Amino acid sequence: MAGMKIAVVGTGGIGGYYGAQLVAAGQEVHFAATRRHVAPVRERGLLVSTDQATKAFKPASITTDPAEIGPADIVLTTVKLYQLRDSMEQIAPLLGPDTLVVTTQNGVTAPATVAEYAGAERTVPGLCIIVSYIEGPGHIRQVGFMPKIQVGARTLADAATTPADEADGTDPRIQALVDALNSADAIASATPDIEHALWKKFALITTFGGVGGLARATIGQVRDYPPTRALQIQSLAEARAVANARGIPLTEADTNAILAQLDELSPESTTSMQRDIAAMHPNELEDLNGALVRLGAEVGVDAPLHRIATACMGLRVATQTEPAAI
């Protein structure tokens, strides 16, 4: 698939960055965006600032109405988890018989949600490792390391019917997307074991944000204080127990590697969930730590630390009357 029509749902830190890279790769890219981004991008292009430079990228179109885009080869859904269902209710005009819908959200619940609307035969799970945010309307800022995106090698339907060791490589449509991203400023790969990768990231972010949010502290403060360091270890153990009970082989080696990743983060780092709660913005608490608790309950595994973190941060969300420090 030399040239693809790609619809990017969302123009935030993930959608804006990866959509721009696909424009740079010569693909036909259309954005389904909120109103504030439309006029600036139409006038001067989508701006992406990195540590090196600011560049403008001209997509094929940007609109608030997916019907103006029509069926696409690839739909890249990049909205936050709490926005996902609302965006999926508008996705029908983007779907053709061979369309693939790629998820990029945090957590592990997005693929099932997307499949409800687009069908398992179209849904491809994915994840991003990136630090980026909206600098202003139509302007994305990416900082630090080179972003990475990883997607499943097959659709949910194919993965459910064919064991990974019997699969015939990567779906050519998915490989075309990976190749396009790798031809621009992105590091992309496809894996038959995407569910394991999703759970590793899920364990990391629920530990980072769950313990940090409960303690109202930065990652450096949490890991340098022995009692909260112990909570990080407990958090990862709970995530591993839930994953294993659900058939995901998250190992002790995996959780040790995640702990090492947390140790490499800048001491002042916090998660977007922590910052959103402090700023009284919509947040992913119920879709991350809350989801881990619910996923555990479905298989009879309690996750007490995550249950307490969800309850305490949830109380803060419900009763906070003004923005506060982390």
**Number of spatially distinct domains:** 2
**How far is it from the N-terminal to the C-terminal residue, by CA?**
47 Å
Counting helices, strands and paired strands, the structural category is: alpha/beta
**Strand order of the biggest β-sheet:** 5-2-1-6-7-8
User: How much is the radius of gyration in Å?
Assistant: 19 Å
Which word captures the global form? globular
Low-confidence stretches: none
Measured as a percent range, the helix fraction is 40-55%
Overview of the structural elements:
The chain is α/β, with parallel strands linked by helices. The chain has 2 domains: 188 residues, Rossmann fold, CATH 3.40.50; 124 residues, N-(1-d-carboxylethyl)-l-norvaline Dehydrogenase, domain 2. It has 13 helices and 13 strands. It has a 6-stranded parallel sheet with strand order 5-2-1-6-7-8, sandwiched between helices. A 4-stranded mixed sheet has the order 4-3-11-10. The termini are far apart. The model has no long low-confidence stretch (mean pLDDT 95).
Task: Sum up the structure in keywords.
single chain, 326 residues, alpha/beta, Rossmann fold, N-(1-d-carboxylethyl)-l-norvaline Dehydrogenase, domain 2, 2 domains, 6-stranded parallel sheet, 45% helix
